[in-house]
Amino acid sequence: MADISKLINETAAHMGATPMNAESADVNCAETDGHTLFYNPSFMSQIEAAGGEDGLRFVVAHELGHQLGGMDNGGHAGEFMADEFATRCLVEMGADFESISGVFGMLHGMNPNGSETHPAAGSRSSRAQTVFDSERRHGVGIDEEIAPTHKRVNPNIKDITYC
Ligand SMILES: [Zn+2]
Predict the structure, then answer these.
(1) Number of neighbours of residue 27 by Cβ within 10 angstroms
(2) Residues 6 or more apart in contact with residue 8 via CB below 8 angstroms
(3) C-alpha 152 to ligand 1 mean position (Å)
């Protein structure tokens, strides 16, 4: 598998985020407390199989997006916000949308319906596609509509998905 620490450092530098430590851990997917990215190696291997190295970058950028957007921005709006940060980062790094749709395809396979904390993967993918296309054309700013709200679910841990 790709070197997660290296991907974090490259992606954080690109986003203007603070680099996180990477720690292989007994978690279900990938999550952060804002300082360390804890990841399940098997989950990350599946992400890489579905979305390639850019798929892994998307997961990393999503977690860094939580850090940038503020860890107390929870719920669906917080997830869309992190997805938007990550999508913009991937556009700027020259990724194809297939890497992002590959990630959401895999998440959809794990749970197609979403949860209290995370919107359904299909809905996240559609929003990401819109941001991706818009960023490619105009480089527009953060969309008011998905700006963070202050609904709190768990302010301490942010996952890539419900699992
Ligand atoms: Zn998240």
Answers:
(1) 15
(2) 19, 20, 22, 37, 60, 64
(3) 13
pLDDT in tens, the chain (163 residues): 899 999 999 999 999 999 999 999 999 999 999 999 999 999 999 999 999 999 999 999 999 999 999 998 889 999 999 999 999 999 999 999 999 999 999 999 999 999 999 999 999 999 999 999 998 886 544 444 444 444 344 556 778 776 5
State the residue range of the domain holding 54.
Answer: 4-159
Q: State how many domains the chain has.
A: 1
The CA 142 to ligand 1 mean position distance, Å, reads 17
Ligand 1 centre distance from Cα of residue 160 (Å): 4
